[in-house]
Each structure stands twice: as structure tokens, then as C-alpha cells.
Amino acid sequence: MSRDEPLVLGIETSCDETGIGIVRGRTLLSNTIASSMDEHARYGGVVPEIAARAHLEALEPAIHAALAESNVALADIDAVAVTSGPGLAGALMVGVGAAKALAVSLGTPLYAVNHLVGHIAADVLTSDQHGADAPLEYPTVALLVSGGHTSLLLVRDLTTDVELLGETMDDAAGEAFDKVARLLGLPYPGGPEIDRAAASGDPKAIPFPRGLSRASDMAAHRYDFSFSGLKTAVARWVEQKRAAGEEIPVADVAASFREAVVDVLVTKALAACRDYGVPRLLLGGGVIANRRLRDVALERAAAEGVAVRIPPLSLCTDNGAMIAALASELIMSGRPASTLAFGADSTLPVTEIQVAEDA
Amino acid sequence: MKERASVARDYPGKVILGIDTSLGSAVAVVEPDGVVRSQVESADPRGHAEVIGTLIERALAEASVTASDISHVAAGMGPGPFTGLRVGIAAARTFALGRGVPVVPVVSHDAVALELMLHRALTGGYDEAYDETFAVVSDARRREFAYTVYRGLDDDGLPVRVAEPALTPRDEIDGVLAAAGAVRRDAERIPAAMLALAAARALSAGRTIASADALYLRSPDVTIPGVPKRAST
Ligand SMILES: [Zn+2]
Q1: Nearest CB to B53: which of A63, A101, A106?
Q2: pLDDT in tens, B170-221
Q3: S-S: A190 plus which of A81, A177, B113, B221, CB 3.0-4.6 Å?
Q4: Closest chain A residue to B21, measured at CA
Q5: Residue A82, beta-bridge partner list
């Protein structure tokens, strides 16, 4: 195996995207994503069993597509990488089973890695070998926001030292978008719908609460998030208007709700940058596709002298390329492969960057 | 067009890998003529993802073959609890993909039926096509059993399914089987070697014996959310 530029195939099945990515060293060769999002739409959220069934059906076609796109043969693959967790257990197991059998079949090493750290690893990928972007600098604060997680991390080193500063105590930010969209009669997934509705709204129209932002909360949960109270506040506000027979100003509700989410996310991320003296903030996860979040983060970070990095949006949503990228970094830093004796760990802590590393 | 010896002829020295995770986890390596080279398993009804890689590796090692000696991968398609079942199917598909060989889907209960009838043929002095009607019954969780009704072996040496796999509440199984005139045969494990043998016989006969889709027999468990719950009051 080439330790300088390993050719790695990554498998990601932690939620509703079946992601197959192929990277060579830090170069992205393919990023194939099959999503079961449409199948979940009528339920207003990801249904684990539907997601797991979809992974089983999507895996093989996705691997074929990724190989074709990167013009790589399976026989050339140096290593297989897979998400061991965190995520939906039944969904993760499909990827773990597939990755193990593929590695044994090809006779390659297998790297079982952490999904959240994978989101950070997406940032090291460049689309062509010569277009060298400025490399990721350490330490950096990372804010990962999606339908499945909302986490604030301190990354001292991608392959050896990632610390969890805080995470959501209840709903993930993306889930809050889905639930509020539903409340407003908007379809799933809620993020893009809320965004569309908010475009013509006034973000200051309704003062929705900022979760865990009071002084007492900031002492106990400085970097943690909570969105269920916000969701309830929106629901109550809408109900009161309806009860009074008033029309719901959907644009204003959407804009004010979105502003509350964005405000808390950016405020806490920048507080971490300040507290740890780290002038770097990396954004990742599917909710980063939200333009308002990116704009507010860029604007307020600039005012505080914090440099913001955002991987290409196609690498922010869950994908296999970021899993391959993390494994590639592990290989290039000389780390041994994982043994075959690991499982899916739905609550894998972020400190476990690689799982079942061979002693 | 039946070509009985096609497997052996097309793949000299090659062997079939059988993988099933519909109950525990089981992996076997079998020669096309049925000689069992290895069979390893874990009875754990849950940790399928944990053990599957190690079991495949052990099955190959104990059979003294390498991955490149595999000509086909027999996949147990269920019925069985979904979360575990999928692990084996996913593994069978990617193993086959890695070698560029076909997957042969097999109804998991067929392996149990084949073992029962072959065992009887060997020990009881009966013909393989012993004509008892029986049902292979396995745990499907949620207080249900999965069962498949069999009677004898056909000319290709494959178990004849009188009734396709189905689910029934646990307390109704005996009534259901009595009505079908079938003797109950509980399955605690799926013999992967018999799964691979069924695949070998199907290949010899040029037949497809199972669908390429997992045998779920049950719709995904979902609740369609109604009107959002009231927040006030
Ligand atoms: Zn994610």
C-alpha cells in the first residue's frame, strides 16, 4: 500500500445517505451519494428501518458509480474505510458488514472511523492534486450541524486529538428545522423550506428564545445546545395566533426562528474560539448549506478576527469521501489498520477517532 | 438447459462461500459437489456486524482457500430479524463485488430443510426425498415466528417449498401448522454449509431459487405523524 498517497474507498451509512467516496491521499476522486430522503418525507423525519433498507439496496450501485466516476478498479484500492459511529445503529451495521466483507475479499486493510471527525476531514480534500488550498491549521474549533448532530469540537490534531466541547441536549439543529417546517405546513426536509419562506421575512419580528444562553446556562452548558424549547416557543406562538383567528406570518416566523438557531450556533462557536484563544472556525454538516448560517458566521467571525473554513457543500452533507479522507490521513500518519472485531457504535464518542486500532 | 456439472467445470478448484445472518451469524466454504471445507458460526442473535468479518476470514482460513478461490457467494436472504439479516446480505454482496463473482440468493430456511432431509437420508435409511411435510420455524421477534413449509427434495436435490416463507403470531403457529398438515421443526441456527450446497445445486441445475431481495415479510415500522401536538394547554 502506498503510504504517501493511499487509494481509499470510504463507506458511510450512519443516517439516510449511502455515501461511497474514493480518495487518493488528499485528492478527491469521487463522491457518490444515494439518499433515501424522499422516502422519509411523508413521515417528517428519518425513519431508521427505511434508511437501513435503503442502504442495503443502494450500496452496490453506489460502489459501482464511485468506481466508474474515479476510473479506479477495486483491485487497485489500498484500503477500505467505514463509519463505525455515531449514527443510527441499524443503518451503521449495513455499512460495517459491507466494509468488512469488501476488505477481506480484496485483502486490504480496513479503517473504522468516527463520523463526526470525518466531517472535519472533509476539509483536507482538494479536488485536484495541484490546486493546493491552504492546509487546515490546528488547533481549530469545529461546529458540525446536521439533522443528526449539533456538536462543537476543539480539534488539536485531526488524527490524534479531538475534544468534544459541547453538543445538543435534545434535538439536532436540522431536526428543529424539520419540526418547525411541519408546524408551518411546509414539506420535509425543513431546512431549505424554512430558508425559502424566510427570504421575505423579518428576522427580528418575533423574539424567539435562544436555548441555553442565559448566564446560569452559560455557566453549566457553555458550549451545549438545546432546540426543543425554541421549537415549543414557535409552536405556542403559532397556536396563539391561530386561536385568535389571525393569519400566520409564515415568512416572519421562519426568519425569526432561523435567526434564533443561527444566533445560538454562531455565538457559542465564537465563544469557544475566544475562550480557547483559537482564531479558526471550521463549519461542517448538512445544515451548513443554510446560507444565513454561513453569512452570519462569516460576518461575526470576521469582526472577531476568526478565520472561517467551509468545505465544499457537497462534502458537508454526510458522504463517503470524508470517511475515506480521514482513513487516508490515518494511513499517511502511519497508523495501523483496525482489526475486524468492531461493531456499529451509535454513540461513539468523538475522542475515538479510529475504532479497533490494531495493537 | 440443464448442465449438472457446470459449476465444477466452469470453476476448476473453486469453492462457494455461504453467508447467513438471519438467526446467528454463519459462514461456510463448500466445494461445488457438496464437500464441506469449513463452517464457522456465532450463536449471538445480535452482534452480526461485530463478528461477520472475523467469521469470513476464519471460514477461508479453515478451508485453506483464499478469497480468490471463491466462485460464488451464497447469501441467506431470510426470513429473519432485519437488522441482523441485512449485515450478511450486505457482506455477501460486497464480498462478491470484490472478487467479481455472482451472488446466489438462497431462502435461509432452505438450508435448514436441506440439512434435515440429508441427515435423515444418511442416518435413517430413508431416501433423500422422504415424504414428510414439515415446517422450518424460526424466531422473527415481535412475538412472531417465520415459517416455511417443505415436502421432499426435487430432482435437482433441492428442498420443495409447499408454502413460501410467512409470519404468524407465536401462539398461533401450532394451529397454522396443523391446518397445513406440517410437522414443526424449530430452527435455532442456519447451517451455512447447507446454504452453500443449496446454491451449488441451484447453479448446477441452472435455476434461481430465491429473489435477490431480502425476505422482510414485514413493512417498516413507522408511525405517520398526525397533526403536530399542541404545545400550549
Ligand atoms: Zn453527519
Answers
A1: A101
A2: 999 999 999 999 999 999 999 999 999 999 999 999 999 999 999 999 999 8
A3: A177
A4: A97
A5: A11, A112
